[in-house]
Design goal:
The complex is a heterodimer of chains A (173) and B (104). With 173 residues, chain A is mainly alpha-helical. Chain A contains six helices and no strands. Chain A has a domain of 82 residues: Up-down Bundle (Four Helix Bundle (Hemerythrin (Met), subunit A)). Chain B has 104 residues and is mostly helical. Chain B has one domain: Helix Hairpins. The longest helix of chain B has 31 residues. Chain B is elongated, with a radius of gyration of 17 Å. Classes of the chains: A mainly alpha (173), B mainly alpha (104). At the A-B interface, helix 1, helix 2, helix 3, helix 4 and helix 5 of A face helix 1, helix 2 and helix 3 of B.
Chain lengths: 173, 104
């Protein structure tokens, strides 16, 4: 795949950052979730730029397709009688301190990134095919794949048990 | 300043991480905190892909690591939102300060 020019990448990065910042600032939780879906789509573009189309596919399927739906259903299930407007910042002082902490963290990270210079002359790696990924998953990474499968199964069964309603004992008996 | 794609990607990742951090720290809604955590996880995954692109590793191990990370993030979101729904059923709110008084 031909890598896009830097201005295109910068525009995609700006769009991702704008949607993420808006999602974190808006009070309406559904609007925030939908804007985060856009952010995840833009991140998938960066995976395509990096030469990992399978990763972009997984990002779109899991984040844009699955996690966003779970979040929207959770919002709809917990929104109706909640009088406290949970998406509002807890207090002005807390919002200011959160902005200060995250701004300080970004300043440190940006300084470190801009100071760092990569070793020149490294050719970009070949784009891994699905067959290459499958061979790695079925070979050296087989244990990690099995452990991830067990974790996914256990957590999804646990999530179903946690979210299922608890039957109260009948007090008339 | 001469910015190459790797630095742009790393700066975007840092900014996304800090946006998620600000959301987690400033809001008291549990679902909002989960959204912020997902954003931070995405930023970390972006770093893996960027370093793999510009690194010397010929093997696709960083790609596989991101795949596992996405799977674990999906599991985390499922359990977290199930906990939010269960908590909402008991307390009729999903605010995190109310969760500090859980018993048993």
């Amino acid at each position: 795949m031909i890598p896009p020019p830097l201005p295109v990448l910068a525009a995609i990065a700006a769009a991702a950052l704008l949607t993420a910042a808006l999602a974190m600032m808006l009070r309406n939780l559904i609007h925030s979730a939908l804007l985060l879906v856009l952010t995840w789509v833009f991140v998938a573009f960066f995976y395509l730029w990096a030469g990992a189309p399978f990763l972009a596919f997984a990002q779109v399927v899991v984040y844009v397709g699955a996690i966003s739906m779970v979040v929207l259903f959770a919002v709809l299930l917990t929104r109706r009688h909640d009088p406290a407007k949970p998406t509002r910042p807890a207090s002005l002082a807390r919002a200011c301190s959160a902005l200060a902490v995250s701004g300080g963290a970004f300043a440190v990270l940006a300084w470190a990134v801009l100071q760092w210079r990569p070793v020149p002359g490294n050719p970009p790696p070949a784009e891994p095919s699905v067959a290459t990924l499958g061979a790695a998953l079925a070979g050296p990474q087989l244990h990690a794949l099995l452990i991830t499968g067990v974790i996914l199964t256990a957590t999804l069964i646990g999530a179903a048990l946690i979210a299922s309603p608890v039957e109260k004992p009948d007090s008339s008996q | 300043m001469n910015l190459d794609p790797l630095h742009l990607c790393l700066l975007l990742s840092a900014a996304l991480f800090c946006a998620g951090l600000a959301g987690v720290l400033s809001r008291s809604g549990a679902i909002f905190a989960l959204l912020g955590i997902e954003l931070m996880l995405n930023a970390a995954n972006l770093n893996f892909a960027a370093f793999w692109r510009h690194g010397q590793a010929a093997a696709p191990d960083p790609i596989l690591f991101v795949l596992f990370s996405i799977a674990v993030a999906a599991a985390e979101a499922a359990v977290g939102l199930a906990l939010v729904i269960a908590f909402y059923r008991h307390r009729r709110t999903s605010r995190l300060p109310a969760a500090s008084r859980l018993k048993g």
